[in-house]
């Protein structure tokens, strides 16, 4: 993957030395040892049938064939806190729930919420933040090579999780791994996971071990570690965190008005087809495409979108200026599509009209995790995140934290793809140096929010 400026943190070690750590009080009044003991008092099991036992001061979770995910859940709930623990897993995927949730009104009480990942596979996303049974990945390690290298499969690894206010940070063996802001859950339980396994995997008797578990709640905000260069991922609807602003992000849509947008077919914002309600920019019906009032060259764009069953839309960039002047948007497109229900998914070539593809040119594939080629898609009715990174001729499409498309505008390979597409014969397709961001109206209902951009 081509590195751009904000990827710099992945190339340099970020471990915090003793000189950079704040002085943390170590007395019993600050830290509580919450390591599960014999009898598991203060904890309870839920979910599947995996076993939990304490041996020589270590909590051992052993996977069982045919069992769904199993959890050892704290009886206590926590709001703002800092959690530290050591974990060892040679092969078994696992994790620790942070502000975990389990409610009868949500999927029959399934454990869900923030999870600090334990990933001993080649992918190596230990320390990433996964939204269990909800939005999936909130912070992958696909852009954080330093943290990927920090985890030692089969050895003890020291985790630190800071959950203070709406910010959650993770560290693995002293290396910053993840940093998010999100206001979905303000408090909840801590839980240790034993992941489900197949019958074949169960033969090896996979297990995960935890020890030296401690938590601090009093004055947690004063004990967070210093800021690091790690990129923060924001999940606040139509809002930016202070860290995002410092990183150059700005909102393209303010969450309530049409300011900064215009109709492609006319000077003003469409009177029909587009609406703004409940913090969502909604397209439904014939209103035509809309475009930003400003043009952009090198940029990173992030858009949260929610499809309805069978919906079709798209995000276009670097459109042809001559066509745009005539009310048409002809340019590269990040396809938005319900692959399971819309017939366009089976058209084109090799799936190049499916969700997150470069429309009619390059099919979306999971490039961040080659061992799992399928895309990570939240179904219609749930939110997904599209990211487009364009710098020079290099362009990337990302879907829910996974890179799915990568290409070079203007290259011979790109030209050959254009010649085989519906855009054949359009001179200079995708070659504009600058242009507006366009949201497509295709007659179907699609919701957008948290539309933000930074120029690179």
From TrEMBL:
Position of the signal peptide: 1-18
Keyword hit for Secreted: no
Keyword Glycoprotein in record: no
Domain of life: Bacteria
Residue ranges occupied by any 3-keto-alpha-glucoside-1,2-lyase/3-keto-2-hydroxy-glucal hydratase domain in the UniProt entry: 39-215, 248-454
Entry GO MF terms: hydrolase activity
A Pfam family recorded for this sequence: 3keto-disac_hyd
Gene3D superfamilies, A to Z: Exo-inulinase, domain 1 (2.60.120.560)
UniProt keywords, alphabetically: Signal
InterPro entries (alphabetical): AL/BT2_dom (IPR010496)
This protein's name: 3-keto-alpha-glucoside-1,2-lyase/3-keto-2-hydroxy-glucal hydratase domain-containing protein
